[in-house]
Specification:
It is built from four helices and five strands; from the N terminus they run E-E-H-E-H-E-H-H-E. By secondary structure, it is of the alpha+beta class. It is globular and about 50 Å long.
């Protein structure tokens, strides 16, 4: 799994994950939408914009997934060897669509990552099968006309709670 960067450079997802783990954070959540496909970066990135959001109350779902956590949570759009496909509208992949939809439709429910992943795996795979009309896609040699991927599986590389305790000396 890698990110395609300008100039046909590739950054391995595992390198990003290792850089995060090496910082020894109390909690880290890495959610990516990348695959093992041979796609390449095609657009020039816009200049980043700074946005100062208004303070808002976090939804119970967002709070349960992202706040007050410890451990490493590393999730991506497709398991190793699978490509992550889009709907062809230029707005994102199946994983992105379903993840955003899940966050919106379950915002009032304090669900954990296990329940989230079960739902995402099911909805992404169903959409993949619908879009490919259960014929799959060819990921190796497009000239042979044979399909070799019949599913897109949301994959958790690590869902490990942090072990141990932090202690502070009492005065």
């Amino acid at each position: 799994h890698y990110f395609s960067l300008p100039g046909k450079q590739q950054l391995l997802r595992s390198e990003v994950e290792r850089a995060i783990i090496d910082k020894d954070p109390r909690a880290a959540i890495l959610i990516t939408d990348c695959c093992a496909a041979q796609g390449h970066y095609k657009a020039q990135a816009d200049n980043p914009k700074t946005i100062t959001p208004k303070a808002a109350r976090l939804s119970p779902l967002f709070e349960s997934l992202f706040m007050g956590r410890s451990g490493i949570f590393s999730i991506t759009s497709s398991k190793p060897g699978e490509v992550s496909i889009t709907r062809g509208d230029g707005k994102g992949s199946l994983f992105t669509y379903h993840f955003v939809d899940f966050l919106k439709s379950n915002s009032t429910r304090p669900l954990g990552w296990d329940a989230t992943l079960v739902k995402l795996k099911s909805s992404v795979d169903a959409d993949f099968k619908h879009l490919t009309k259960n014929k799959g896609i060819d990921t190796s040699d497009p000239r042979d006309g044979k399909s070799d991927q019949f599913t897109q599986t949301v994959h958790a590389f690590m869902l490990t709670p942090r072990l141990g305790m932090r202690v502070k000396q009492k005065n």
